[in-house]
Amino acid sequence: MLVRQLSGRTLRASNYVAAALLAAMTLVACDVDGSPSSETIQASDSASPTSHQASVRQTDAAGRRLPFATKFPNRWSSNNDGTTFEPCTAEASDTRTRLQVDENSVADAAVADHQTVRGCEWKLIQPKLAYLSQFVGNFNGSLNQYKQRYAATGDQFLADTYEAGRAVAISPGNSECTTIVRSGTAMVFTSMSFVIEKPTREQMCEKALDYTRATINQIPE
Hints:
By secondary structure, the protein is of the alpha+beta class. The chain has a domain at 17-29 and 83-218: Protein Transport Mog1p, Chain A. The chain has helices spanning 17-24, 93-98, 143-151, 201-215, and strands at residues 40-44, 53-57, 107-108, 118-123, 130-138, 158-163, 166-172, 176-183, 186-194. The strands form two sheets. A seven-stranded antiparallel beta sheet has the order 3-4-5-9-8-7-6. Strands 1-2 form a two-stranded antiparallel ribbon. The longest helix is centred in the last third of the chain and has 15 residues, at 201-215. The two termini are 23 Å apart.
């Protein structure tokens, strides 16, 4: 499936979020809908021999600032602009507290410019080496079409559940569980992953659903 592995820091969700995104998208830069805010930083373009200075966008489509300073000019791209939803600025701090998330650990899902996925990841305080992540990636099809495509490659899905009237797919793995919600021409993925102390599959999926419930009303249809 697409790559649930958000970065090279550690295992994240599994390997299904990038294969689909890479198969479904081209690597062409494109801004997300909405006008970038004037809040920018100056970042050096390391690829340019003249060290050209470029303004790097630091806010979502609604003008809310990211919880970190991104150095990637193409963090928003044609690979992930199918929805205006920005996981990094979602209002769900109460739920992150309940899930024992370390707010100070927030990190961009992107570790390179023009990353396929766009979103954030957090470490859990307890258990150690456990992570919450939420990210988006374009997929121009229905939730059922997404599931059918990747079920054919061996990915597993539980029966859909419904939150706020929206269908939510659930995909468990050996050490993670990910929920998937359609938004525009993109999918929003919410994943709980565990490296050492692994809860039961039901517990992992319930934690992922907990965060999905906390953010779903902020995710445009």
